[in-house]
Amino acid sequence: METIDTIRDEEVEISLMKEIPLSFARNNLVMPVKRADGSFTAVVADEKGIFAVLDLAKRYGLKPRPLMAHSGIVTDAINRFYGQAGSAEEVMDGISGEDLSSVATEFESPRDLLELTEEAPIIRLLNALLLQSVKEKASDIHIEPYEKELEVRMRLDGILHRVLTPPKIIQDALISRVKIMANLDIAEKRLPQDGRIRLLIGTTDIDIRVSIVPTSFGERAVLRLLDRRQGLISLNDVGLDTEDTLHMEELLCRTNGIILVTGPTGSGKTTTLYAALNKIHTEEKNIITVEDPVEYQLKGVGQIHVNPRIGLTFASGLRSILRQDPDVIMVGEIRDYETAEIAIQASLTGHLVLSTLHTNDSASAITRLIDMGVEPFLVSSSLVAVLAQRLVRTICPHCKEPYDPTETERAYFRNVNLGARQLSRLYRGRGCPKCRESGYSGRNGIFEILYVTPDIREMVTGRKDSQLIKDQSVSRGMKTLYVDGLYKVMKGETTLQEVLRVTQKDYVEG
């Protein structure tokens, strides 16, 4: 028998994945490859796999051709290739051919739940949706009911795309299946419900936050997907340039003060905080977090999950944390005066506090704390720095191409200090199958870091306007979100249109 050390994509016949069950492939450690020239080729790891190949070849009436490989190579190939078979659209086509009325009544009585198998059409459909979302690296799945139709959309790189429009008749069954997986009450259809689903797809550990709310046309579900393995990244990986990374690392070495990360929902604030914690996490430091919910597991860090229903709020959790002798505290979000006050008191008594706030830019975070009721002198004496951020889509590396910028595009760079940089050419994605013809693949951050210097402290104590604080910081050399975005455009990481979209500046067609 021939021994191989890799299984290439172009050699595998994907249609075989639909004919040979995943459980059979896994149990026998056999990876079907192709049917050609009168033989059936498959990769195996041991004797058991050889017998499985003999059986399969007999079924197809072909000559068996087993290839030997290490068990790890076979397992990885099974996970990779079976993930490519059976998109949600294909499963939906299969369901359409069945009696839809029987599909719709699958979840009507609790007795039926015991009879369901993994082959039930609704289960197949939801499994295919989850598999497709993980494969395409989607961050959210939206199941949205309307008057005459049901729509399923996925958020890819921050933009929603419609992936499916199933018949309205299966709406209740699909939502019920989501509820069962998230351990929610399938009989309660009048109140919002929140839950979690923990999935293992191949070797990928996925945490899904489920939110279900009642609407005029039925229950609406949003599933937020978190890849638990991707939580620990470095400050460079989130998009900070070398200079800003060094400044942030210096700030994180402090023993007290507050560092805030601000931006709208879904702008990567929590990921940045985890990157910061990952940088300073050592055996000598006691780090405790209070979050809603705990999004990533960090070994050696005490993580508290907020639960307002039993009285465990950010404020009460933070108060308890202070009795645990922490060196560094991370608060998921400062939402009210009580949390802000305790966080500031903690920072003034020898703790480094990291937290997030929902504001549009860095200077607004200062005035937001004062608006909450915190005294300006407390803000000025405790705040060390505010980092504002947004996520921009990055250009797809497979179809990236240079082009000469138009005069209109050049105009955006004229009033920006480019230093020694020259604007000669820009880059864009042409669009290819790997990026769904969008020209973009993945996302990266653009940042604005406001350091609380003595003159900024004075302005905060004097209750100066956020615009004046921002202008003063810019005059001292602060890069705004817009300018940091333009630098990334010049490096060829993203496009001008994308930076203008997230910084909400108007793009004028040339």
Give your account of this protein's structure.
36% of the residues are buried. The protein has helices at 15-19, 22-28, 47-60, 71-82, 88-96, 100-104, 110-115, 121-135, 171-181, 242-252, 269-280, 314-321, 337-348, 362-372, 376-382, 407-414, 454-461, 466-475, 481-490, 496-502; strands at residues 30-36, 39-44, 63-68, 140-145, 150-156, 159-164, 193-201, 204-215, 218-227, 257-262, 287-291, 302-305, 328-331, 352-357, 383-395, 400-403, 426-429, 440-451. It is of the alpha/beta class. Helix content is 37%, strand content 25%. The protein contains 20 helices and 18 strands. Helix 5 (88-96) runs antiparallel to helix 8 and helix 13 packs across helix 15 (376-382). The protein has a seven-stranded mixed beta sheet, sandwiched between helices. Strands 6-5-4-9-8-7 form a six-stranded antiparallel beta sheet, with helices on one face. Strand 7 and strand 8 form a beta hairpin. The longest helix is centred in the first third of the chain and has 15 residues, at 121-135.
Task: Please render the helix and strand layout as text.
Layout lengths: L14 H5 L2 H7 L1 E7 L2 E6 L2 H14 L2 E6 L2 H12 L5 H9 L3 H5 L5 H6 L5 H15 L4 E6 L4 E7 L2 E6 L6 H11 L11 E9 L2 E12 L2 E10 L14 H11 L4 E6 L6 H12 L6 E5 L10 E4 L8 H8 L6 E4 L5 H12 L3 E6 L4 H11 L3 H7 E13 L4 E4 L3 H8 L11 E4 L10 E12 L2 H8 L4 H10 L5 H10 L5 H7 L8
Parallel strand pairs: 2-3, 10-14, 10-15, 11-12, 11-13, 13-14
Antiparallel strand pairs: 1-2, 4-5, 4-9, 5-6, 7-8, 8-9, 15-18, 16-17
